[in-house]
Amino acid sequence: MEEQQDQLNVQQDEEILPKLAVPDTAPRDKFNGTAVFDVQNTSIYYGSFRAVTDVSLTVYENEITAFIGPSGCGKTTVLRSLNRMNDLITGARVEGDIRYRGVPLYGKDVSPIAVRRRIGMVFQKANPFPKSVYDNVAYGPRINGIRNKGKLDEIVERSLKQAALWDEVKDRLNKSGLGLSGGQAQRLCIARTLAVEPDVVLMDEPCSALDPIATGRIEDLMHEIKSRYTIVIVTHNMQQATRVSDRTAFYSVLRDEKSDTRTGVLVEYGQTAQIFGDPQDSRTQAYVTGRVG
Amino acid sequence: MVEPRQEFERDLEAIEAKVIELFAMVAEDLPGATQALLTGNNDVLQALTEREQLINALYPEIEELVNREILLQAPVASDLRFLLSVLRIVPELERSHDLVVQIASRANHILGEDLSPRTRGIVERMGALASEMWRQSVDSWYQRDRSAALALEERDDEMDELHASLVAELASGRMALPVTMEMTLVARFYERLADHAVNIARRVVYLAGPVKEKPAG
Hints:
The structure holds two protein chains of two kinds.
Chain A: H1 2-16, E1 28-29, E2 33-46, E3 49-60, E4 64-68, H2 75-81, E5 92-100, E6 103-104, H3 112-118, E7 119-122, H4 133-143, H5 149-162, H6 166-169, H7 182-195, E8 200-204, H8 212-225, E9 230-234, H9 238-244, E10 247-256, E11 261-271, H10 272-277, H11 282-288
Parallel strand pairs in A: 3-11, 4-9, 4-10, 7-8, 8-9
Antiparallel strand pairs in A: 1-2, 2-3, 2-5, 5-6, 10-11
Helix pairs in contact in A: 4-5, 4-7, 5-7, 7-8
Chain B: H1 6-39, H2 43-73, H3 77-105, H4 117-143, H5 148-171, H6 177-208
Helix pairs in contact in B: 1-2, 1-3, 1-4, 2-3, 3-6, 4-5, 4-6, 5-6
């Protein structure tokens, strides 16, 4: 019954969200390519608490966009708003305009489930399901109604190869996903995300629990897959942002002394080489050079 | 609150101090070299040669310090611009001081009275102009003044004119051939010194970074 419901949603959503291959209403820019997300004057609240404000930025197709900033600056909140993960938190609400390929992401007719099918997410802590490696990857496609064993095999192999994990797990596809090392588990989660062929992959500090070698693998993998996907990554590691991203958004925290509240704010957004080479804002300069006390 | 990255900050300041030291040696020694050439008094040469030794030790030391910071501190933005600028200007400073020593060493071969009055006059003006340009160049570095490059480029045109005048005077054959040959080199040394001063001021444009917009809020 639940799966049938999902099927229905898929069909409905196809009418509302433009087809992936032909983004029809998304603005195109001669210099910057196709806009995947267009965020304008957006604030996000948890109840009466304004977590982040004044966010305006455009995420472009086949690019890696990094969000950096100190703790509490709202970067994860903005990331989560891009696939409506915040809908799951009671009291969370978004004010402003977030368009995904030209369609208002928070429009009345848009199903959050369909959004998350197109806009996948990888979390800080690898969270494989307590299932086999194979079933972890096949989970999404199965929910989407794919039953054919041959087809599923193909998807599992393709996804694991894209996630640069295939060679390490091809002989233990039926072993539990929980038995993998930290870096492998994270790549399994990436494979699981890629299995449903999303349009966008959101990554929330995907390497913060990994050693440098595992981190390097994930970064290589990001470079590999960006020709097919659009990636937005939140990272605390500024060198990681310089290594992988095309554009960087720096967020900071505004403190209101009177009410003793902190609100995140987007300070500066631009090409990564510009943000780290010639930051325009003194707060960006202080943060990227490590002069923030 | 503890200032962050104190250690790094101190290292950068130490590098800046050494660079200024190099600058000072070129700018201070240049007038003395011109003086030696025009008076034929080569007393100053000994002091200049000693400075040369100092510089030959100082500039690899600065390069080593910069390499270390780049390796260990992952500098970005203005820190990276500073360190790269230092790497680029240190060889110019070293070469410029070489030129200064070369000018002074001509006092060994040429006596003041070997020079035609017009030659003396032009060399005096070239020396004064080069000294002035170097003072400006040092200031521009010290103050991160990106406007100096333009001013120095204009003065460099003056220097090129003086150089052309001196070459024309030398070509007139009024002086002994060996003197003329040496003075042709000297003319070139001043012209190169001016070029180095301009190059450094151009580096300062990069060092100072793009003109900042006023940060909002």
